């Protein structure tokens, strides 16, 4: 009965006030910056024009950047598909010993920031890095191989793919699990089998889910800033926008590039909605998913183990080399470091730049997490407990930052708020906090949403029935019961904020405001101890992320995967 | 003891009218049942009384006090939820004490009242347990204690036994009835289980499509259903369609197999010529051997039967089902009309399949109802 879309009696003054605050927040910090960029891209000298786009397309540098970014996106998407498809089939369709462990392990690379991995990767695959030296010593090659040929293109692609394949895997696996086994059985029944079955029945049915994953991967690779920067692969859209963000007034090309990114993103989501309705096909019986998997033979088990372990192993190499680099005393022209030290871990707490950046990041992340808790819990509460007009719209807006490249938002903040009291040249602190908060809000909303949803409304009604008002009920009953979920969401928001790249690089202009990631980036430029200290910082970040994800996974269990799907 | 008055309550959800102009008077201390199939609006009505919904029209009075606009936490009702809704982060004791803490009852009195309430539901040894450690039946009892301990004006029970197994359900029926009689609290009990309602209720309101179809004591609802819905929903019955030929007592209805007489005053306004249905309960029909009766009865039996207050129907047994304490017979009358009947002393089978039988039924057991729809 209460399934009706909305109920005016639910629109109490309190609810209206929260809705008002949310409209204001999203209006000011999500829609206004994007609109500002759009307007500046199309209006010059008070009139509508597309001349910036002409300029953009004529400049050979921009042309190159656009082509590179598209190639990056396409090749990365293809590579993640090749990695993730057999993984998903193995993990969804087969039962084997150690399935849970290997399945979990295969997701780990997703949480490792590629920006940090890039540092290690660069060390390892450098002209005289470990890999080349090893091959030279063993006599397999005569001259060092240029692994990142094409000015670093392959380095970026490999790193992006190794970071993003878990997202692709989660989406394909979900799509595959949603294919009703009876549909496949009926296809077998009429004589389709093996690859033909996959091509004609299974693949078309899982296509919407696959496409959803592919879009995220493409957009991520298309707009990632940190990895190309570390590889000094500068002719990509993201780095071009980063360069132009420092002088938004002098150079209008930045607007055009950002608008271009927005258009590409929109076009992709529009296509997926148009062709797949934005939703998965309705499957008849969803309950019998488990019956689709079959016991693997011992040969199959060996093959699956081999595949999963080598994928995860390869994906973790960059991060292992970060670990190695961070404890290196001397590492010159040898496969492994010749002397080890933990001195850099001490140094990062003594050095001005690093210490300050750790303090900055802690402060910024705590503040943004507080905002996320307040807004996220409020939104999740409204979505699960109240019926009001435009409920679906609020849901969509709260999830929007998942699909919106961080680059776009950061650029919008720089240009939209320049000259106001929020100008990043005065202090980037307020906008950094807000940018972190907006970007991580979806995780918080989803975590809290899951908490509210699994808690029966009657528990709250029973409290009111006993004589507790709405606020006391919230405090005594609702909050204690969803606390674990809120904590999980908050920790996730916090640690992602600590390692956030594009907002940090673009918004933090003065050194005194550098967060950890920007400090790492600037350390990479120092020849002597830079990479070692950067690696030590990266390690700290990875430990923080790993701990928080372990905790989150414990609280959210199987629903954890939902946090990373669009 | 607080009495309730519901006046013209209407509640819509979008285009669906869940509760449609319901008016009910519930006396103080009554155990009152709202009975109906799922989707009939009974739970919505209960939640309107608790204050979780506001009515679109009408008013709710506790004694003379209008509570229509009072929020749920100021109504002083004690609700027992279908899923019990015990708070998992509090012990049994804390669950029960919650309402008293909110009412700022001194702690010594709190202790007395909580242990009294737990004793009442026979859960006093379980105070320190967490609700998760209790069985369904035990959770049910704690939920009841939590609702009673605040001494509410009215206790609201929302299908309280529907999640329990059959044995426990029977046991809890007696328990709730006992607790009602001990406390004397007004209780409103929602269920779709007619046996629960018939066996426990002081009075029952049968609901259909958001409206009250009939209100009354269990016996009168069963014996004198106000319409075909109530006759069909409460217990089993045989419906026989026909045309009313006499509207004074005893009523006469022309059916496909002859005339049926009824000495029950109809609830609805009926006049000769109206299409009607007659409801005849299976247990009101008796079986006799047609040959054995032939000697006493003359050929055209209808007039004789009417004079003696008895209806006579001839047919053939199609099927019998033996169920230990009773036996069900399916009979096809000579014109093809099916009749179900029940023999409550099935020591021996009265007639096997294929045997011709004569059915008799007292005119006081035939209820004439307006044709539905």
Characterise the protein shown here.
The complex is a heterodimer of chains A (566) and B (373). With 566 residues, chain A is mostly helical. Chain A folds into 2 domains: 65-326, MetI-like (MetI-like fold, Orthogonal Bundle); 343-566, Orthogonal Bundle (MetI-like fold), CATH 1.10.3720.10. Helices cover 71% and strands 2% of the residues of chain A. Chain A contains 24 helices and 6 strands. Chain A has a two-stranded antiparallel ribbon. Chain A has a two-stranded parallel ribbon with strand order 3-4. The longest helix of chain A is centred in the first third of the chain and has 34 residues, at 60-93. The model of chain A is unreliable at 1-5 and 278-291 (pLDDT under 50). Chain B has 373 residues and is of the alpha+beta class. Chain B folds into 2 domains: 4-227, Rossmann fold (3-Layer(aba) Sandwich), CATH 3.40.50.300; 236-370, RNA polymerase II/Efflux pump adaptor protein, barrel-sandwich hybrid domain (OB fold (Dihydrolipoamide Acetyltransferase, E2P), Beta Barrel). Chain B has helices at 42-50, 92-102, 107-120, 136-149, 166-183, 194-200, 218-223, 228-233, 290-294, 301-307; strands at residues 4-13, 16-26, 31-35, 57-62, 65-66, 77-80, 154-158, 186-191, 203-208, 211-216, 238-246, 251-255, 258-262, 275-280, 285-288, 310-322, 327-333, 338-343, 356-362, 366-370. The interface between A and B is medium-sized, with 26 and 33 residues.
């Amino acid at each position: 009965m209460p399934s009706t879309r909305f109920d005016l009696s639910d629109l109490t003054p309190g609810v209206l006030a929260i809705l008002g605050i949310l409209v204001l927040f999203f209006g000011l910090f999500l829609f206004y910056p994007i609109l500002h960029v759009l307007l500046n891209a199309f209006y010059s000298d008070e009139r509508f024009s597309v001349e910036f786009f002409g300029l953009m397309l004529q400049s050979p540098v921009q042309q190159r950047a656009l082509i590179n970014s598209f190639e990056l996106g396409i090749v990365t998407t293809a590579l993640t598909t090749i990695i993730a498809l057999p993984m998903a089939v193995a993990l969804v369709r087969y039962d084997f010993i150690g399935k849970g462990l290997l399945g979990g392990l295969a997701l780990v690379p997703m949480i490792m920031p590629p920006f940090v991995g890039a540092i290690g990767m660069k060390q390892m695959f450098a002209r005289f890095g470990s890999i080349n030296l090893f091959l030279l010593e063993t006599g397999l090659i005569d001259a060092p191989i240029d692994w990142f040929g094409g000015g670093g293109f392959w380095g970026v692609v490999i790193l992006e793919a190794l970071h993003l394949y878990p997202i692709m895997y989660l989406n394909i696996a979900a799509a595959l699990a949603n294919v009703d086994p009876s549909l496949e059985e009926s296809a077998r029944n009429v004589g389709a089998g093996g690859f033909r079955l996959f091509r004609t029945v299974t693949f078309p049915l899982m296509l919407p889910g696959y496409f959803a994953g592919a879009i995220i991967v493409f957009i991520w690779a298309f707009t990632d800033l940190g990895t190309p920067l570390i590889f000094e692969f500068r002719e990509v859209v993201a780095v071009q926008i980063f360069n132009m963000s420092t002088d938004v007034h002098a150079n209008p090309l930045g607007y055009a590039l950002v608008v271009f990114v927005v258009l590409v993103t929109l076009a992709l989501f529009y296509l997926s909605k148009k062709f797949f309705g934005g939703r998965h096909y309705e499957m008849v019986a969803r309950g019998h998913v488990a019956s689709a998997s079959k016991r693997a033979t011992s040969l199959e088990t060996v093959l699956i183990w081999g595949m999963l372990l080598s994928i995860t192993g390869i994906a973790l190499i960059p991060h292992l080399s970060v670990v190695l680099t961070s404890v290196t005393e001397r590492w010159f022209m040898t496969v492994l470091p010749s002397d080890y030290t933990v001195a850099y871990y001490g140094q990062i707490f003594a050095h001005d730049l690093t210490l300050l950046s750790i303090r900055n990041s802690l402060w910024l992340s705590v503040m943004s997490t507080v905002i996320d808790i307040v807004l996220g819990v409020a939104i999740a509460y409204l979505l699960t407990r109240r019926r009001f007009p435009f409920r679906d719209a609020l849901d969509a807006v709260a999830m929007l930052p998942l699909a919106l490249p961080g680059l776009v938002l950061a650029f919008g903040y720089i240009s939209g708020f320049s000259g106001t009291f929020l100008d990043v040249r005065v202090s980037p602190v307020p906008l950094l906090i807000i940018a972190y908060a907006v970007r991580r809000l979806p995780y918080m909303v989803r975590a809290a949403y899951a908490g509210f949803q699994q808690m029966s409304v009657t528990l709250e009604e029973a409290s009111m029935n006993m004589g507790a008002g709405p606020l006391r009920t919230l405090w005594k009953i609702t909050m204690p019961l969803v606390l674990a979920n809120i904590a999980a969401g908050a920790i996730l928001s916090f640690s992602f904020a600590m390692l956030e790249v594009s907002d940090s690089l673009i918004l933090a202009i003065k050194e005194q405001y550098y967060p950890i990631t920007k400090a790492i980036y600037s350390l990479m430029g120092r020849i002597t101890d830079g990479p070692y200290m950067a690696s030590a910082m990266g390690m700290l970040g990875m430990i923080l992320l790993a701990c928080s994800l372990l905790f989150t996974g414990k609280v959210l269990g199987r629903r954890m995967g939902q946090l990373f799907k669009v | 003891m607080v009495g309730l008055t519901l006046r013209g309550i209407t509640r819509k959800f979008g285009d669906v009218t869940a509760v449609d102009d319901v008016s009910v008077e519930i006396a103080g201390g009554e155990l009152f049942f709202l009975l109906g199939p799922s989707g009939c609006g009974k739970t919505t009505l209960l939640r309107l009384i608790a204050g979780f919904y506001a009515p679109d029209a009408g008013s709710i009075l506790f004694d003379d006090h209008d509570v229509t606009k009072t929020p749920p936490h100021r109504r002083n009702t004690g609700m027992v939820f279908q899923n019990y809704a015990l708070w998992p982060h509090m012990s049994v004791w804390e669950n029960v004490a919650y309402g008293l803490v909110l009412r700022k009852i001194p702690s010594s009195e709190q202790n007395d009242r909580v242990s009294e309430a737990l004793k009442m539901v026979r859960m006093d040894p379980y105070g320190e347990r967490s609700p998760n450690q209790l069985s369904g039946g035990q959770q049910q009892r704690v939920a009841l204690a939590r609702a009673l301990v605040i001494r509410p004006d009215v206790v609201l029970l929302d299908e309280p036994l529907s999640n329990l197994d059959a044995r426990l359900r029977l046991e809890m029926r007696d328990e709730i009835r006992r607790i009602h009689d001990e406390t004397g609290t007004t209780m409103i009990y929602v269920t779709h289980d007619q046996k629960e309602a018939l066996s426990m209720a002081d009075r029952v309101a049968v609901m259909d499509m958001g409206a009250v179809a009939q209100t009354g004591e269990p016996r009168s609802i069963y014996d004198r259903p106000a319409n075909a819905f109530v006759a069909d929903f409460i217990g089993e019955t045989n419906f026989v369609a026909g045309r009313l030929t006499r509207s004074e007592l005893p009523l006469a209805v022309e059916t496909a197999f002859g005339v049926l007489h009824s000495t029950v005053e109809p609830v609805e306004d009926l006049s000769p010529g109206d299409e009607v249905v007659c409801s005849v309960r299976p247990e009101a029909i008796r079986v006799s051997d047609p040959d054995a009766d032939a000697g006493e009865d003359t050929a055209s039996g209808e007039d004789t039967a009417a004079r003696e207050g008895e209806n006579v129907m001839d047919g053939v047994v199609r099927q019998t089902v033996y169920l230990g304490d009773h036996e069900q017979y399916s009979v096809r009358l000579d014109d093809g009309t099916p009749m179900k009947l029940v023999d409550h002393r099935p020591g021996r089978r009265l007639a096997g399949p294929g045997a011709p039988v004569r059915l008799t039924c007292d005119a006081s057991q035939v209820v004439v109802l307006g044709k539905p729809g």
